[in-house]
Write a structure and sequence with these properties.
Helix content is about 70%, strand content about 0%. The chain is mainly α.
């Protein structure tokens, strides 16, 4: 299930204190109207975590494909000869 990041604000919020660089504060001031920093940070964290999860999954799938490539190639070669034999036998 894909969760939408649009207006999925929980009913209650918790206050936390964070430290950010002056550069980050300047960026926040440029893109978030006063009073909406929390909402922007909330959305940004969710967006970042979702993107990172997708990247991690993509990397895991890639690694699995590489790990099993030799096995998969051997199976394909084995079945190729069987398919070729059946093709020749039935006049294909």
């Amino acid at each position: 299930m894909k969760q939408s990041l649009k207006k999925t604000q929980p009913q209650t919020r918790q206050r936390i204190n964070i430290m950010v660089s002056p550069e980050t504060i300047r960026l926040l001031d440029r893109v978030a109207p006063k009073g909406s920093r929390s909402r922007l940070i909330d959305q940004a964290v969710k967006f970042f975590v979702e993107k990172r999860a997708k990247a991690n999954l993509r990397e895991e799938l890639k690694q699995e494909a590489l790990d099993y490539a030799e096995r998969d190639r051997a199976i394909a070669e084995e079945w190729f000869s069987i398919d070729e034999e059946a093709w020749e036998k039935h006049g294909g």
